[in-house]
Amino acid sequence: MSVKIVQDDTRPPLEFNLTQDGSPVDLTGCTVKFYMKDATSGSVKISGSTCVITDATKGKCKYLWTSSDTNTAGTYVGEVEVTFPDGKIQTGYKQIGITIRADI
Known about the structure:
By secondary structure, the chain is mainly beta. It has a single domain, classed as Immunoglobulin-like. Helices cover 0% and strands 57% of the residues. The chain starts with a strand and ends with a strand.
């Protein structure tokens, strides 16, 4: 998955369909968090910000950008972490390539 957004933009949201072995991950009762780091330096830009689950049984969720998320142009890598109702955690259903282009 690859996403392109312009510096300082906060729309559209970053939407995910989480699957495992081709089937949707049931997110009922789960917490989903988003992480993003600079692809070159490894500096963390987003550290565990909460995603909105939009359809739990179909594994659908989205991350709503904030202005501090997109204020620096560059290339980033993002991933999601799911905490299940039993407290177990699974990370990295998807690694997301994110390019934030400088505003004109």
